[in-house]
Amino acid sequence: MIVGIIGNGAIARHVREHIASSNHILGAVLLRPERRGEHQGDQHVYSVDELPDDLDLMIDCAGHSALSAYGAEILQRGTNLITVSIGALADQNLYNKLQESTLWGNAKLHLASGAIGALDCLQAARTGKLESVTYVGRKPPRGWAGSPGEQVIDLDALTTGAVVHFEGSAREAAIAYPKNANVAAAVALAGLGFEKTSVKLIADAAVSQNIHEIEAIGDFGSFQFQIRGKSLPDNPRSSALAAMSVVSKLEQLTNPIML
């Protein structure tokens, strides 16, 4: 496949490394217009209009603002899109716009699972009666730096114990914590939706990794699932599993036999 990438951060670099070692071809890198002139090479473009016509797929690695800025236009031109910015879909207007764009362009928006797993189990469970789904996100105090959690607790002073700084729906979490709640959004879309998925966010001085926990109860029975995530080596704020999930989704679209 000829693939384009949105962004040039840690996740984008991980995906580019995979493409370079695969049978895929990197066709373009889409960056913000204000970054024009910062990079050399023919592959860098600064608007959707500049993307080459022969792209088979675009991959969004640049966050909520990029999906909002470019997603609809990419889908309307008939180009399939993978995104890891699932939390952006908590904005119902954006969700509707992207859905309409897939129909207009006869394209698909593929959601990479990001820093979480077990979503296939959750998707299966929702075909029956799914009673409750709860997501708990636990990070070391500094992992919440720059988030609304700073307004609730003194992160620097939290050296022992754990403090809950958010409880609410997945929609509220994804909107309030756009850089921290992609996982909550992924869990919501796989299960009960944004309004009925419960979310709890915790700053915990006793942990050194980002910990994601899902609990679901329904006709199928119940399950509890936990992931202790590591970050990418060149950016402590980027989940290694999130980057890997993008690569996995890319390969799913090309493999003739899929699980």
TrEMBL record:
NAD(+) binds at A115, N182. Residues 160-247 form the Aspartate dehydrogenase domain. InterPro entries: Asp/hSer_DH_NAD-bd, Asp_DH, Asp_DH_prok, L-Asp_DH, NAD(P)-bd_dom_sf. Pathway: Cofactor biosynthesis; NAD(+) biosynthesis; iminoaspartate from L-aspartate (dehydrogenase route): step 1/1. The active site is at H212. Residues 26-103 form the Aspartate/homoserine dehydrogenase NAD-binding domain. Transmembrane segments: none annotated. Its EC number is 1.4.1.21. The iminoaspartate product is unstable in aqueous solution and can decompose to oxaloacetate and ammonia. Specifically catalyzes the NAD or NADP-dependent dehydrogenation of L-aspartate to iminoaspartate. This is L-aspartate dehydrogenase. It comes from Parasedimentitalea denitrificans. The gene is nadX.
